[in-house]
Amino acid sequence: MRKGFIITALICMLVTGYLSYAVSQWWLIVFVMVVLLVVMGIYDMVQTRHSIMRNYPVVGRLRYWMEDIRPKMYQYFIESDIDGRPINRIDRSTIYQRAKQQMDTMPFGTQLNVYEEGYEWLSHSIAPKDFNTLDHDPRILIGNKDCRQPYSCSILNVSAMSFGSLSSNAIEALNAGAKIGGFAHNTGEGGISSYHLKHEGDIIWQIGTGYFGCRDEDGRFSAEVFKKNVDRPQIKMVELKLSQGAKPGHGGILPAKKNTLEIATIRHVQPGTTVYSPPYHSAFNSPKALILFIQQLRELSGGKPTGFKLCVGKKSEFAGVCKAMVELDIYPDFITVDGGEGGTGAAPQEFSNYVGAPLMDGLAFVHNMLVGFGIRQHIKIVASGKILSGFHILRAIALGADGCNSARAMMMALGCIQALVCNTNKCPTGVATQDPQLTIGLVVDDKKHRVANYHEDTVNSFIELTGAAGLDDYKQLTRSHIYRRVFMNEVRTFEDIFPSLQPGCLLNGNIPEKYKQDLEMAKADTWQ
Fold this sequence. Notes:
Blueprint: H1 2-22, H2 27-46, H3 51-55, H4 61-69, H5 90-99, E1 120-122, E2 139-142, E3 151-154, E4 156-158, H6 168-181, E5 185-186, H7 194-197, E6 203-207, H8 223-230, E7 235-241, E8 253-254, H9 261-267, E9 275-276, H10 287-300, E10 306-311, H11 315-328, E11 334-338, H12 349-354, H13 359-372, E12 380-384, H14 390-399, E13 403-406, H15 408-414, H16 436-439, H17 444-468, E14 482-487, E15 490-493, H18 494-497, H19 513-521
Helix pairs in contact: 1-2, 5-15, 5-17, 6-17, 10-11, 11-13, 11-19, 14-17, 15-17
């Protein structure tokens, strides 16, 4: 790292300088080479564009040299789709190119196997719409009849990532990027820090089971502390986290190595300890109590949009929440649907791999339930779970979402290379670490523009795709616009795979067979 480089450089210069003077002038050549490397290293440490080079002078250049000499197709990162299939590595490369405002077109056509099971595509129109005539800044007005401060947010926002999980510089860059691009930044469940507030970007305050930022001495929800923090003008919405796709049914984890005194003070916990958030909320114990708690949060906030986030698990429980909404005539302003494919810096592998519904299944179900209960008009739906591209936004909206959140792609825009050491405090790019020797590599003034660039280009890509479908407005997208190959010789639309429901059908007795058991088990007064 930087300190090691400086010490090594001084030693090498002293040794080779002495040898060139006392032993042989041939050592002068070595001395000159060492000086050149030192100058190169100093440049690496002061430049602001490349985090790896700032943190690992000279040595870090190897990464970029290797990228330059190998074919571009091998730069694509090995990832898996939601069902475990290997997919093409285009998305990661596209994120970097958009963040850096580089050319994101590619030669020789698609790298995807279009005849492979699971391949998806948009049905385009022979008469597409001109991109220049479409709305380039689509926004969603969130707020229902009980909301007194509706919020107009972008169709793509920063998903929940806490200070503690991410570095202070990463939080600053995300919020500053949100300010530049006019989109919102979700705090994650780790509470509100000065780094969230410094650049005055719009904030969605997420409250998890640990109630960080609004808890009393015993770790329970405190209305007084909540009221004090939620009155900040930067906070535009409040999101109650029931579960997240990376580890549904399991509380958040902050490793001890990342729990600094500053973070511990914000969260009101002991520094240097591993912080385990409870797996469930102590502020409510039934669907009705959940809805009443959301109403309480909305009232305490002065009427700011308030909703909840979940990864779909037991379908009968969500049906019970819908019954509670109807009985109380109280509705959250929004519901964020996370997918089981979502990522995190620390979670048991079994929870990440095998618990929780994937985004598309959960999203289609939540939309159908709200429509079936006749309450969809009161609630906006936000999709969160591996949203990386314009097509991913389009696919989510076709399934029923109003907008999307992205975490993974925003981290990549910051410079994340997915080194997979988030939980060790050794992130080489300074994104997911609290080590000041590594966070210095992430320069806020550079990375904030990359975050804004990625957002702008991805939203534009989504709008251009909408126009390609022959639509004037993205709200005209339906499940029939997306096709999926389910077998080698069989193709179905999303409407075939995820059939829509008629408005109010779950209330008038016209219940589809696949929903009957869940509806019978659903209760508004208890989870079981």
